[in-house]
Design goal:
With about 150 residues, this protein is of the alpha+beta class. It has a domain at about 50-125. Helices cover about 45% and strands about 10% of the residues. It is built from four helices and five strands; from the N terminus they run E-E-E-E-E-H-H-H-H. The strands form two sheets. Strands 1-3-2 form a three-stranded mixed β-sheet, with no helix packed on it. The chain is elongated.
Length: about 150
């Protein structure tokens, strides 16, 4: 049987109130208590509230979106089709990861925050008008480079 690294081992107590517990000990070593735990990419909060996980996805999506815009600017990429493909490939999966587990338990505020990322993407390029959505891209002003 292998050994357990008590420096890396954490304890998360699922609770709905602010009850304090004694320190958890394993092999005469105190184990740290944490409020959240990431398991296969999904953040689980000690109150089993999905809002924490959703907010982490939104923050990750924002970081990836701004990173994408920065890289597109550096390489002078302004093609709607290419940027849309990159957004759908790199940003959307970050935001939606784990939604199959969460289902529809998303607050109105979180939904608006997700929509803000999409709106920022659509309206960032000055050539793209606000009336367009991801499913209805604007017309091309110039042909795509081959």
């Amino acid at each position: 049987m292998g050994t357990i690294n008590t420096d890396k081992t954490k304890v998360m107590i699922i609770k709905s109130n602010n009850i304090t517990y004694d320190t958890f000990v394993y092999d005469n070593n105190n184990l740290d208590e944490v409020n959240s735990y990431k398991y296969i990419g999904i953040d689980i909060h000690h109150k089993l509230n999905w809002n924490y996980s959703i907010e982490k996805r939104i923050i990750g999506g924002l970081k990836d979106y701004y990173g994408l815009e920065k890289i597109c600017k550096l390489v002078d990429l302004w093609s709607w089709d290419k940027k849309k493909l990159l957004f759908e490939t790199l940003v959307t999966p970050v935001i939606l990861y784990g939604c199959e587990v969460r289902g529809y338990s998303i607050s109105r505020e979180s939904r608006r925050n997700i929509e803000k990322i999409q709106k920022n993407f659509i309206t960032y390029n000055p050539k793209i008008k606000r009336k367009y959505t991801l499913s209805h891209p604007p017309p091309r002003n110039k042909p795509l480079p081959h």
